[in-house]
Specification:
alpha/beta, five-stranded mixed beta barrel, 54 helices
């Protein structure tokens, strides 16, 4: 062994770190022999060291600066019987490596504290030696007593301070029992306050415990907290120093126990605890092989820090990613401990990859001898980075290879960060040092670099929204106390930036410099997006300067690549700039390709430029994207380049063939390679399940802004041709639902005053706009179409195309309720073409049919009907145009005038469509829906359901779930189910429609409000009136806010709400609403308009219930007079008005007039309705009571007998309607003097009600009173005698309300009174 004088720094392989001087003294006392002479300290090292030897090891002893806590506090448990003076040794157990920092972490959203710190395990050499020592202890026991005795023999004066204090001073109190105030000794503490299982230690020999040590930045002096934390962690003791060493110093922690981590803490045991720990350390050192220690890497502090800059002071979020990287590099899985560890971080430019690496490097710097940063964005940069690193580390004239070799041979831990590994054509493994040493972090945009990872791979997405908001507010220097008040507007800024890290930082810098306010930034972004994204802060600049420059790095890689797929990738990027950024279906391109072939082959010789169809011009424009396809004749299924393909496929004479001669297949391989090239640079992401592409909002903006104006116009036209061709003939398929958002986004890119507009461009735009209008065109979509440059000089010489465009624009004006603009445009076209074409020309038919539709939608129904009827009489009307006219007339007849005639017309249309069109054709589905709606309004529910079930079944196949066409049919089907009594099924279906609309429509959407209106009516009709009224109140409130007072939908909802109020007895509120509706309608619609007389009808009924009989008779008389002229004899609305007026006459005592009206109704219903129809029975019942009131008992008997006979068959014995009819039949018998018949009938009622009703039930009491009256009549000798005068009715609904009619109404669901609601549905 070398003499102490000859020892150098490298000869000391083991260090002992003590927290207190008393601990250092104990360790020094265990040295074998004398202390060694000190060594000259290294520059900047202020620590004081003691050198010496224990067994075969030269050791150096250091002590922390004065003020540390030292020693440890025990946490006694059933598993660990720890006493004062015992020794605790850190040993991996469970999820912990021997030491856990229990106060380091974060509080989550649930309010619970989560530890995020993870400390290293002790070195394997120490753990193996520890295991060997434990084995010896099991066999022969510990040598601690002998070592302590030798220490005291060597240093006798230490016995007083370091000797055993005596077991009588080892006292553990209950956790909840605090130290009594006074001296630090526990003389005043109650010795009985001890745990039940506590047993004093009889021997003074220390015991050794192995397991988890809990470390923190604070002293543990609270018994309950001690027990809780110890139980949670499985900890044996608490201390304060170990956590600061474990990740930076390969070590084992040995602690002597001096107190129980409670308020009874004192220093009496401190010396002995230090001596015990020192004794164990000496014993352990005797089991550590010197040669194994020599093999270990020295525990140096970080010596090499070659990192370009520090992490940003504004760094926010990414805590999970940072923790994951640190954990994988510093605490790898067991099988990777002896291998080079590589972690790959992938993400788009500016997302924060480099910033994460800077943060990780700073956090774990002291765990590595060297941290090195190399920019590998190019071969030259990589070479320069390695050269600079070698020179900094003292290598003479280093090359990249020499530096990598130097790192591979280093015995120390090093971290190498390879930044900007973005080039898809570079194999970055060439930059890795060989061998199994070191750690590497690789940042890249290329997903293929994942193959280099062996300990971890993380694909970065944008920042979490809350993190992005925090980052923005930090960079704008908003005081943290004000963050909450700025959160909403900051969220808007973050949203427009897509939570892109670099963009958020630069936005904050822009705002912080006073160039705009936080509130104004979103508006500035819309107006000056390119300028803002090219903004470069003056301080703390990013590597590439601005956001767009970051993305240009990716484009540069594509432009410099010689690979063919990258050329297509650039073309694909230009296409993606003009469509929506999410879920772009890759199948677009193959569909467009196939349509291009069809256009070239099937185009006829007639001048196609007279129509709005796509032509060869659009195919040639498509070549801007497709011409990049490879010219590989040898590949099976391949094809020539697109431009050559066009030249070769132009036959001299176009003819139609049953089979296309184009055998060429679409080159899916090249397209897939292009997608992969963009994805490899994180420009796009690919969903392999749905085969769609997605691009970040800022990359999407950059892809367009980077194009020159001429290049942008060319790309815009090419994109439109691809979209239009991919949709040709396919708008009825589910594919349309995938493209709707992309068509909208594309159309938004067209300025109204574009200079590149031509007729061919209009053809393309028209086709795309037409696809939007195939389903229900929303108001925003209508606004969008009106902003397109569709009105162009080139249309003046192309009448057919001009009319197509005109009709589309008129439709948009109608959707926006700009009826005057629509009429002006139509009249202008009609005037222009009247001089060119005769009345029977197809163009003139189109214009006049569109004018009729405008008149109908703008509520000029009579004018529309007159125009349509004139068109229908024209002998040269084409069959297709005839179907359009019939649909319009059918709708108006069924809604406003002759319902049956309307149905006949709609049935004819459906027959035409079913004979000519496929089941999935939208024209056929729409006409079927219209016919079903007409059936519904005539209460022919079964017919409506038969059609609607088929329409909905087909709709589910061809529409997406939220399609308005599908939802409208589903809602009508639900209402039809309710109409025929399948209430639960119907309401569930309407509720489903509401649920879907809630996810896709705004609360004030007309479609949503219409469904809510109908659902409310369904609830009211089925007895859930309160729920229905609440919904109608919401509808009315929104419509008052969003539409004018005379709007038909607003009036319909106010009408329905007024009727509902009357129904629940809130008659005053109901009358107020209905009077308002009637007042508006008096000034806005004709006197004989159905909506108006329906409102008059309901207001009259409300007056009747409010006992305003004269007002009711006046209104209802007016309604009946109008309806006798306008409506068919058996129209439901007309019959209902007659019925209500009859009630008013009865209430006014004019029974004969009531009988006259009710007789008319009964005669019609005998023909129109089934014998057992509830409405017909109610009318018979009402007429019978009118006859009773008029003293015509025999006629009442005749009617009531018919009702009772039918109800005996149809209804249960105890049905209230049946009992009520029997009751009044008994009354009629009694009034007619047929007392025995009266007794027989009312006795049957009394017997049933006695078994089913309570004794005080009003109905039962009335029946019993009637029976008593009949019995008295018999006793008075009136049997079978005619009374001559009608008896005084106990309750006459004709005079005192309608409580008894509810029995009949409950049996019918929708009767005369509620049929008005069904009829008025058309208003909504």
């Amino acid at each position: 062994m070398a003499s102490p004088q000859a020892l150098q720094r490298e000869d000391y392989q083991i260090g002992v770190i003590c927290a207190l001087a008393i601990e250092q003294a104990a360790v020094i006392a265990t040295l074998d022999g004398d202390e060694h002479p000190g060594l000259t300290p290294m520059s900047g090292d202020d620590n004081q060291y003691t050198f010496g030897r224990i067994k075969d090891h030269n050791i150096v002893i250091a002590c922390l600066p004065a003020g540390s806590t030292g020693t440890a506090n025990a946490c006694n448990s059933e598993e660990n019987d720890v006493h004062l003076g015992d020794v605790v040794v850190s040993q991996p157990k469970g999820q912990f490596g021997g030491v856990v920092q229990y106060d380091f972490g974060k509080t989550g959203e649930d309010g619970k504290f989560k530890r995020t710190s993870h400390l290293n395990e002790p070195p394997k050499v120490l753990l193996h030696s520890l295991q060997k020592l434990q084995t010896m202890h099991f066999r022969k026991g510990s040598n601690l007593r002998e070592i302590l005795d030798a220490m005291f023999e060597k240093e006798p004066h230490m016995v007083k301070r370091f000797g055993h204090p005596g077991t009588e001073h080892d006292q553990l109190f209950n956790a909840s029992y605090d130290h009594e105030s006074g001296p630090t000794k526990c003389d005043r503490c109650d010795p009985l306050k001890v745990p039940e299982d506590w047993e004093a230690r009889e021997t003074s020999d220390p015991r050794i415990h192995y397991g988890t040590i809990a470390s923190a930045n604070q002293v543990m002096r609270h018994g309950p907290t001690r027990d809780r934390v110890a139980a949670d962690l499985g900890a044996i003791c608490f201390e304060m120093e170990a956590a600061g060493l474990m990740n930076n110093f390969p070590c084992l922690v040995i602690r002597g126990i001096c107190d129980y981590a409670d308020t009874h803490k004192n220093k009496k045991w401190q010396g002995y605890a230090a001596a015990s720990a020192a004794a164990f350390a000496k014993e352990l050192l005797s089991f550590i092989p010197k040669q194994e220690v020599v093999k270990m890497a020295p525990a140096y502090k970080n010596e090499h820090w070659i990192v370009p800059r520090g992490s940003s002071t504004h760094f926010t979020g990414r805590a999970i990613v940072i923790e994951e990287v640190q954990e994988r590099l510093c605490n790898p899985a067991r099988e990777l401990e002896s291998k080079q560890r590589r972690f790959v971080i992938v993400g788009m430019g500016g997302i924060g990859k480099s910033e994460i690496c800077l943060k990780v490097a700073e956090n774990i710097r002291e765990s590595f001898w060297g941290v090195f940063w190399i920019d590998v964005s190019s071969t030259a940069n990589a070479e320069r980075g390695y050269n600079d690193t070698g020179r900094t580390c003292g290598l003479p004239e280093p090359t990249q290879q020499e530096v990598r070799t130097w790192l591979a041979a280093a015995k120390h831990k090093w971290l190498l960060i390879l930044d900007n590994a973005d080039d898809p054509e570079t194999d970055y493994a060439q930059y890795f040092p060989s061998g199994n040493r070191g750690c590497i972090i690789l940042t890249t945009r290329n997903h293929q670099c994942q193959v280099h990872s062996n300990v971890g791979y993380r694909e970065l997405d944008t920042l979490d929204r809350s993190e992005a908001i925090g980052l923005l507010l930090k960079t704008t220097h908003v005081e943290p106390s004000l963050w909450e008040s700025h959160e909403t507007i900051a969220g808007k800024v973050v949203d427009v930036l897509g939570s892109h890290t670099l963009a958020v930082v630069h936005a904050g810098a822009f705002i912080q410099q006073g160039l705009c306010s936080l509130e104004d930034y979103p508006a500035h972004f819309v107006q000056q997006r390119q300028r803002l994204l090219q903004f470069r802060p003056t301080q703390a600049r990013s590597e590439y300067g601005d956001v767009y420059a970051t993305f240009e790095v990716s484009a540069k890689h594509l432009e410099e690549s010689a690979h063919h797929g990258t050329k297509i990738a650039l073309a694909l990027l230009r296409f993606l700039a003009f469509v929506h950024l999410d879920n772009v279906p890759v199948s677009i391109f193959e569909r467009a390709w196939k349509k291009a072939q069809a256009i070239l082959f099937y185009e006829s010789q007639e001048k196609s430029d007279q129509r709005t169809d796509l032509t060869k011009w659009h195919v040639l424009s498509l070549a801007a994207f497709m011409q990049s396809l490879p010219d590989d004749k040898s590949r099976r299924g391949g094809h020539r380049s697109f431009s050559r393909f066009l030249k070769g496929m132009r036959p001299k004479k176009w003819r139609r063939y049953s089979k296309s001669p184009f055998d060429n297949e679409f080159d899916t391989i090249s397209l897939d390679q292009a997608c992969a090239a963009l994805a490899s640079l994180s420009i796009i992401s690919i969903d392999k399940t749905t085969h769609t592409l997605t691009i970040h909002p800022l990359v999407h903006a950059w892809a367009m802004d980077r194009l020159e104006i001429s290049e942008r116009d060319k790309a815009r036209i090419s994109t439109g041709c691809i979209l239009a061709m991919s949709l040709q003939g396919l708008m009825y398929e589910p594919f349309w639902s995938q493209l709707e958002a992309h068509v909208e986004s594309y159309l938004h890119t067209w300025p109204l005053d574009s200079s590149v507009v031509s007729f061919e461009v209009i053809q393309c735009l028209y086709n795309l706009a037409f696809c939007l209008g195939v389903t229900h065109l929303s108001p925003p979509q209508a606004e969008l179409i009106l902003m397109l440059p569709l009105e162009h000089e080139s249309l003046k010489v192309r009448p057919k195309a001009d009319i197509d465009v005109c009709c589309m624009l008129v439709t948009c004006y109608m959707i926006l309720e700009k009826f005057s603009e629509a009429k002006t445009l139509l009249e202008k076209k009609i005037q222009a073409y009247n001089t060119l074409f005769e009345a029977g020309h197809d163009i003139m038919f189109s214009l006049h049919i569109t004018l009729g539709r405008l008149l109908r939608i703008s509520e000029k129904t009579d004018d529309a009907i007159q125009l349509y009827e004139e068109i229908l009489l024209h002998p040269r009307l084409p069959r297709g145009q005839r179907a359009r006219v019939l649909v319009g007339l059918g709708r108006m007849y069924s809604q406003f005038r002759e319902a049956k005639k309307g149905i006949l017309l709609l049935e004819e249309v459906v027959q035409i469509h079913e004979s000519k069109l496929e089941p999935e054709h939208l024209d056929r589905l729409w006409s079927q829906h219209d016919l079903a709606e007409a059936y519904y309004k005539l209460r022919e529910g079964q017919k409506a359901i038969a059609i609607l079930e088929e329409v909905v079944q087909i709709g589910k196949r061809i529409y997406r779930t939220e399609s308005m066409d599908l939802l409208v049919s589903q809602e009508l089907l639900g209402r039809a189910y309710i109409l025929i009594g399948e209430v639960v099924k119907g309401i569930e279906l309407v509720q489903w429609v509401m649920h879907v609309q809630a996810t896709t429509l705004q609360p004030d959407s007309p479609y949503r409000l219409s469904t809510l209106h109908h659902l409310a009516e369904a609830y009211i009709d089925t007895g859930e009136v309160a729920k229905g009224i609440k919904m109608l109140e919401e509808v009315v409130q929104i419509r008052k806010r969003t539409v004018r007072a005379e709007h038909v939908n607003r009036l319909a909802s106010e009408h329905a709400l007024g009727v509902a109020y009357v129904k629940v007895g809130e008659i005053t509120k109901g009358i107020q609403l209905l009077e308002g509706v009637v007042h508006v309608e008096e000034n806005t619609i004709p006197k004989d308009d159905p909506n108006r007389y329906l409102s008059l009808q309901e207001l009259g009924d409300a007056y009747l219930k409010a006992e305003q009989v004269d007002e009711a008779m006046e209104l209802l008389t007016e309604v009946v007079q109008i309806e006798r002229v306008r409506l068919e004899e058996d129209d439901l609305s007309r019959l209902t008005s007659l019925y209500k007026l009859a009630k008013a006459y009865l209430r006014a005592g004019q029974a004969n007039k009531a009988i006259e009206l009710l007789t008319e109704v009964v005669q019609i219903e005998r023909v129109r309705l089934e014998e057992d129809d509830p409405i017909r029975l109610l009318t018979l019942y009402k007429l019978a009571k009118a006859h009773l009131r008029a003293g015509q008992a025999n006629k009442a008997i005749e009617l009531l007998t018919e009702v009772v006979q039918i109800e005996r068959i149809k209804l249960e014995e105890d049905d209230p309607s049946r009992l009520l009819s029997l009751h009044y039949l008994a009354r009629a018998y009694l009034d007619a003097g047929q007392v025995n018949e009266a007794i027989r009938s009312v006795t049957e009622v009394v017997q049933i009600e006695s078994a089913t009703l309570e004794s005080d039930d009003p109905s039962r009491l009335e029946s019993e009173e009637l029976l008593a009256e009949a019995v008295r009549a018999k006793e008075n000798g009136l049997q079978d005698a005619t009374l001559g005068q009608p008896s005084d009715l106990t309750i006459d609904p004709c005079l005192s309300g309608e409580s008894e009619e509810t029995q009949h109404i409950s049996n019918a669901l929708v009767l005369h009174d509620s049929s008005i609601l069904a009829c008025s549905n058309g208003q909504s």
